[in-house]
Each structure stands twice: as C-alpha cells, then as structure tokens.
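Long-time lurker, first post. I've been practising inverse folding by hand and with some scripts of my own, and I keep getting stuck on stretches where the structure tokens seem ambiguous. Below is the full token string for one chain I'm working on. Before anyone asks, I'm not after the true native sequence, just a reasonable design that respects the backbone. If someone could post their per-position residues I'd love to compare against what I wrote down in my notebook.
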C-alpha cells in the first residue's frame, strides 16, 4: 500500500493544549488512555487550553472544519482521549467531529520525545472522509491540521 503525504504548507506542527508531563500525571490519564470515556472527558476538560481554542478559532475563521479523532489501539486498550478532545473542541468551535477514522497501525507515540515531534512513526489511518473539506487530526492533547 502506498501512503500519500501532502505538504503541510504554513501550518504549525501541533497546537499544544498542556505540557505532556502535566497530562501524564493527571489522575484520569491512565484510565482515559485505556478507553474510559468519562476519564477522557475529565482529562480533556481540565487540560484544554482556552488560548489554543482561540488560536484555532482565529486561524480557521470562516472555514468549515471537521475534527478527526483516529481511534488508536494502545497496549492497555483503545485510547479515548482523541475522541473526547475532538468532541470538546468541536463543541467550543462549532465545528464537526468525525470518529469514523480508525488507526491501522501501532506507532508507539506514547513516551516519545514530546508532544511536538512529528514524522517518526507516522500513523496510518483508514476511513471515509469528506472530499473538499478541511480536517484537523486530533491525537491525545496534540493536534495536526491538514486539508
């Protein structure tokens, strides 16, 4: 299978909502990582950065966006954090959230060199997208944007 990569143009690699250590030390993190939705929403609600939400709103003002939360299979379960983050951001920004994308490989980003890394161990995803729309991929407490 050939993976097609598109240029990121002028988009920043990530918008960081919270420092990785703060997220990992949060009491709900482990349960959220292993698939507990209530823990994921609690973690996201407490770690979500209003400054980042404002940056996203101004960067994509007037552009209909879809937040994509690829379901990632972890060693301890299916990570519930990306879907909770996508849903919370979608509600705040009046965007759509799409949970129909499934990660097709395991890339082991957990414990990597920080929330700003990109390119090592890229994840593969599969699912139906909306042609001509712009989407933001949500991963834990980091997010990448590309149409």
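-- Answer (accepted) --
I ran through it position by position. Result:
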């Amino acid at each position: 299978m050939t993976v097609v990569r598109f240029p990121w143009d002028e988009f920043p690699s990530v918008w960081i909502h919270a420092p990785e250590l703060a997220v990992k030390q949060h009491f709900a993190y482990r349960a959220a990582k292993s698939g507990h939705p209530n823990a994921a929403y609690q973690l996201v609600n407490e770690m979500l950065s209003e400054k980042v939400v404002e940056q996203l709103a101004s960067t994509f003002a007037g552009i209909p966006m879809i937040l994509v939360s690829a379901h990632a299979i972890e060693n301890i379960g299916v990570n519930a954090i990306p879907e909770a983050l996508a849903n919370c951001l979608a509600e705040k920004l009046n965007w759509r959230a799409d949970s129909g994308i499934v990660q097709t490989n395991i890339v082991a980003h957990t414990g990597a060199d920080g929330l700003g890394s990109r390119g090592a161990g890229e994840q593969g995803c599969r699912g139906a997208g909306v042609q001509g729309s712009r989407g933001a991929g949500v991963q834990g407490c980091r997010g990448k944007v590309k149409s």
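A couple of notes from the structure itself: The two ends are 21 Å apart (CA to CA). The beta strands are 65-68, 73-74, 77-78, 96-98, 102-103, 125-126, 134-139, 142-146. Happy to go over any region you disagree with.
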